[in-house]
Design brief:
Strand order of the largest sheet of chain A: 1-2
Distance between the termini of chain B: 29 Å
Oligomer: heterodimer
Largest interface: A-B, 68 and 47 residues
Strand order of the largest sheet of chain B: 4-5-7-3-6
Structural class of chain B: alpha+beta
Structural class of chain A: mainly alpha
Order of helices and strands of chain B: HHHHHEEEHEEHEHHEEH
Largest sheet of chain A: 2 strands, antiparallel
Shape of chain B: rod-shaped
Number of strands of chain A: 2
Helix content of chain B: 55-70%
Strand content of chain A: under 5%
Number of strands of chain B: 8
Chain lengths: 176, 355
């Protein structure tokens, strides 16, 4: 993670230095987008959710306490909550559509991209993709990732190992 | 926190990790512009936000000792305030004759007798025959004073025309000395005598007893008069001529009456003597009365500790009561919290498990 060299603000009487929101947004935007892209498996949705995540972060910025964790982990928690809300609303939408528009053709699921890696990633579950994103791409450590996901460190490690193995197998199969 | 060291999965899946990291995942420009447009939040963090953001476990670790400390401090303050010099302390005494008086200064509480030597004592009625009895316990400084005061008491009694019926003094090493005197003082001077005897030391106990003898004296006098009258009549009758058996019976009755007259007269004299001389049982002692004098330090600290403990016990009882009353609600709240959390996690797993 890049260091945030920006104007800092301090809490009155609490002597806690915090980076400015704009500096954080500039430095963490790609990371949050990357995470949401892996989690949703859809570029368009990831872009929407990234914007939504930073809007939420903007509104609750004053509640961020740097002593409780990194700003990246905090943003990832907001991004995950936003993505889960999206999944729920999508599920409800699909149910409604299944009830009232049975005859409509199934919409084609958009993927992560045209390559073999993207194709293999698309076959992983969102839970597997998000742990890969957090640990491999965003380079969060085990305990922080576990906190973001709300699971134990061991479960997080197991999930990552399983996801990478599956991904490797799928890519090997695709190569064969 | 980014992992700076090479982690296990990076070694195991080196090629895969490298390919994943080279994927084009940067945010597009339109998203970047949208985020940049947000700018900087105008509202600065407030103390309330800081409090809301505080982790509850850490808050509990701080709040619990703070609450306990506050409770203990309140108990100590309560104890100290309630143990002040204005508070009266009950003192046990065989006759309850000693009580605490407020108003002493410097945290020292001096317990004084309920009455002092200057206070008037119940006076005997000079127009009636009364049995006046007093019992008094007087504290003196030390064994030397004990002997001196005993002698002075005897002189006081003699100066009023009285006498010492008995005196008994006991002193032994390491033990408090004591002198018991039984004094007889003319009733007419008993008030003055008691006043002076009270001044010989610190009166720690005093009892007075006045028993009316007027009726007893009147009955005795009436009986004496009747007996004298009978004796006079019988003597006169025996001078005349009487049958032998009557004479004999009358002579026997006359002798019996004379014996009764003698007894009643003696009893009357004793009663009159009793009514004229009061009886004073005086005890001098070097032993301090129980709780008569207490230093302010120890007594106050003890009371403060007792009050503080009572306060803590009351607070504990209230907390226990609240805990008992609120425990079902607390259990429900905890169950609701954990239930909701478990449901949300299961829902999240289900949502994220679908491919």
């Amino acid at each position: 993670m890049k260091a945030v060299n920006a104007v800092t603000t301090s809490w009155p009487g609490l002597h806690v230095d915090r980076p400015s929101f704009s500096a954080v947004a500039e430095s963490e935007l790609d990371a949050v987008h990357r995470y949401l892209l892996f989690l949703t498996g859809d570029r368009a949705v990831a872009e929407d959710l990234t914007g939504e995540t930073f809007e939420k972060a903007f509104r609750s910025w004053r509640r961020f306490d740097p002593r409780r964790g990194t700003v990246r982990a905090w943003l990832c928690r907001i991004a995950r909550s936003t993505a889960l809300d999206h999944f729920r609303s999508e599920e409800r939408r699909r149910r409604r559509e299944a009830r009232y528009a049975r005859d409509l053709p199934e919409a084609e699921e958009p993927g992560l991209g045209p390559g073999a890696t993207e194709a293999a990633l698309a076959r992983l579950s969102p839970a597997e993709r998000e742990v890969v994103a957090l640990r491999v791409l965003l380079e969060l450590d085990g305990p922080t990732t576990a906190r973001v996901l709300g699971i134990s460190v061991t479960a997080c490690s197991t999930r990552l190992s399983r996801a990478l193995k599956r991904l490797e197998e799928m890519m090997r199969d695709a190569g064969d | 926190m980014p992992a700076t060291e090479t982690t296990d999965f990076e070694r195991e899946f080196e090629e895969l990790v490298r390919r994943l990291r080279t994927l084009p995942t940067a945010a597009p420009d339109d998203v970047r512009e949208r985020v940049r447009a947000l700018g900087e939040p105008a509202q600065q963090p407030r103390l309330w936000d800081r409090l809301l953001a505080a982790p509850w476990r850490r808050s509990l670790l701080v709040l619990a000792p703070v609450c306990v400390l506050g409770l203990v401090s309140a108990a100590v303050v309560h104890g100290v305030l309630n143990s002040g010099s204005q508070r009266e302390a009950a003192v046990t005494s065989p006759a309850g004759a000693v009580r605490a008086v407020p108003g002493s200064s410097g945290g020292r509480e001096v317990l004084q007798p309920e009455f002092s030597s200057r206070l008037p004592t119940p006076a005997p009625n000079p127009n009636r025959y009364q049995d006046y009895e007093a019992w008094m316990r007087v504290r003196v400084k030390d064994l030397d004073s004990l002997t001196e005061r005993t002698n002075e008491a005897m002189q006081v009694v003699r100066s009023y025309g009285g006498y010492v019926a008995s005196v008994e003094q006991s002193t032994s090493a390491g033990q408090p000395g004591q002198a018991d005197l039984v004094l007889r003082v003319p009733v007419v001077h008993v008030e003055d005598a008691l006043m002076r005897l009270s001044g010989l030391g610190t009166v720690v106990e005093r009892h007075l007893s006045i028993r009316d003898l007027e009726q007893v004296v009147q009955q005795q006098r009436q009986r004496i008069l009747q007996l004298k009258l009978f004796i006079a009549r019988a003597t006169e009758a025996l001078k005349g001529s009487l049958p032998a058996d009557v004479r004999l019976r009358l002579q026997l009755q006359l002798e019996e009456a004379r014996r009764n007259l003698s007894r009643t007269t003696n009893a009357n004299r004793a009663t009159l003597r009793e009514a004229s001389m009061s009886r004073i049982s005086l005890t001098f002692t070097t032993q301090k009365a129980v709780g008569a004098t207490k230093t302010g330090g120890t007594g106050r600290v003890e009371r403060a500790a007792r009050d503080a403990a009572s306060f803590l016990a009351a607070a504990g009882a209230v907390l226990l009561f609240l805990l008992i009353v609120l425990s079902p609600l607390i259990v429900l709240a905890i169950a609701g919290f954990w239930g909701t959390r478990a449901y949300r996690r299961r829902e999240e797993r289900r949502l994220l498990a679908s491919t």
